[in-house]
Amino acid sequence: MNQLYLVTDSAISQQAGHSLPFVVAEACRAGVRWIQLREKQLSTRAFIELGLELKQITQHYGAKLIINDRIDVALAIDADGVHIGQDDMPFTMVRSLIGPDKLIGLSINNEAELQATRHWHVDYLGIATIFPTGTKQDTASILGIDGLQRICAQTRLPAFAIGGIKASNIQAVMQSGVTGVAVVSAICGQPSPYEASRELIHLLSQPL
Ligand SMILES: Cc1ncc(COP(=O)(O)OP(=O)(O)O)c(N)n1
Ligand SMILES: Cc1ncsc1CCOP(=O)(O)O
Ligand SMILES: [Mg+2]
Q1: Rounded distance, CA 161 to CA 177, Å?
Q2: What is the CA radius of gyration of the chain?
Q3: How many domains does the chain have?
């Protein structure tokens, strides 16, 4: 399975003329198998409704649906898992609420945060922020390829790099030893989310 991970953004999708379900369906049709529903402004009711709509799409394609931040929403729609960061609910609380079988992705921004994960049952890491990005305002400092390499060398957990990743830099990112890459604007913000996803998957399939 290719290791391209789509993190969604309704506003960026709309600016490019797409609804979010369209973006997710096109990405899945192109072969993306990790989808994260990330919404910062939606009401709980709208979040659940959108989550259920996306779940139908992801199930159709055999893709995973991960919910950003909201453990309650993930439980309510029986998603495949949740993604949390350093300012979200503490990891051990999330694990006890969501149970041993659901996936938990954890963002780390530096080596100290990686060390803290040692005794936890983390399913994958999101390593942020690799390059400057306009998509998220409250990012931690930029790791660059060097910082990413240092973190990858210290963990055997599956890890997705995120932040400013696009076709022109995806291969340099993969050479850092990361398992996969997560993108927002490189799919949501493109004229054709299908073609953009195909191109990224093609680049991921090339020898390093
Ligand atoms: C795959 C992936 N990696 C990192 C993040 C960032 O999570 P977090 O630090 O909690 O920030 P927000 O996304 O909640 O703004 C992510 N969402 N996905
Ligand atoms: C959610 C998130 N976490 C760290 S950077 C980021 C946004 C990445 O967006 P883009 O792929 O458009 O740079
Ligand atoms: Mg978060």
Answers
A1: 10
A2: 16
A3: 1
Nearest Cα residue to 68 out of 60, 54, 141, 154: 54
Cα torsion angle, 12, 18, 24, 27, sign: negative
Which residues does a 6 A CB cutoff place in the pocket of ligand 1?
Answer: 5, 7, 36, 38, 68-69, 83-85, 88, 105, 107, 126, 128, 136, 160, 162, 182
**pLDDT tens figures, 162-173:** 999 999 999 999
Query: How many of the other CB atoms lie within 10 Å of CB of 53?
Result: 15
Cα–Cα distance measured from residue 118 to residue 158, given in angstroms and rounded to the nearest whole number: 13
The reported pTM is 0.98
Q: Whose CA is nearest to atom 1 of ligand 1?
A: 126
ipTM of the complex: 0.99
Which residue type sits at 115? Q
- CATH code: domain of residue 93: 3.20.20.70
User: For residue 181, what are the domain limits?
Assistant: 4-205
